dTDP-4-dehydrorhamnose 3,5-epimerase
Amino acid sequence: MHLEPTLLPDVIILTPARFGDHRGFFSESWSRRAMAEHGLDLDFVQDNHSLSAAAGTVRGLHFQTPPHAQDKLVRCGRGALLDVAVDIRHGSPTFGRHVAVELSAENGRQLLVPKGFAHGFVTLQPETEIIYKCTDYYAPDCDAGLRWNDPALGIEWGLSALDAILSDKDQTAPLLADLPVYFTYAAQ
Ligand SMILES: Cc1cn([C@H]2C[C@H](O)[C@@H](COP(=O)(O)OP(=O)(O)O[C@H]3O[C@@H](C)C(=O)[C@@H](O)[C@H]3O)O2)c(=O)[nH]c1=O
């Protein structure tokens, strides 16, 4: 497994090895042992899988608040998407900053989005599937959002608000400036 840092120190790109042959490829898409060898021992308890029919579908930015905050390990099962993580930890040197990484079925890349980050993505192809592991169960009372196109975030989604396909709740999510303090940064 290959690990690449991003501009946000706790957000990491992981690329598991692929073994290709005349049939296609084989890959360990997640191995607890391989991650632990890199100091990432995460206790995943739920896998999520969603399909977005059209390119230009935006889901996010989402997070669960404590005590049900989630680390997420995100990959693309079909198609391609731009995956985004935003640091929402108050006191963090990178508060409000984001990384955006293209994940596709072809490139096999995964993004580790830790607790304290809002997560979202835009699909770059029709019929795109995202699959992600989470370290806590779905807790509707702790489900929270941040406005995907908040100008304060400066995320280049590659599409306008008119063209984006969004859920009703994502259209009205709060701006960063209006978010309560859910997470505080603890220097390591
Ligand atoms: C997130 C989630 C939703 N649901 C249900 C609630 C609802 O009826 C339906 C659709 O939920 P949503 O509209 O929130 O789905 P979606 O917009 O795809 O939400 C997801 O977006 C990405 C960006 C994330 O990071 C995820 O954590 C999650 O928030 O699925 C569950 O049963 N379990 C879950 O874990």
In short: The pocket of dtdp-4-keto-L-rhamnose is lined by residues 48, 50, 59-60, 62, 72, 119-121, 138, 167 (CB under 6 Å).
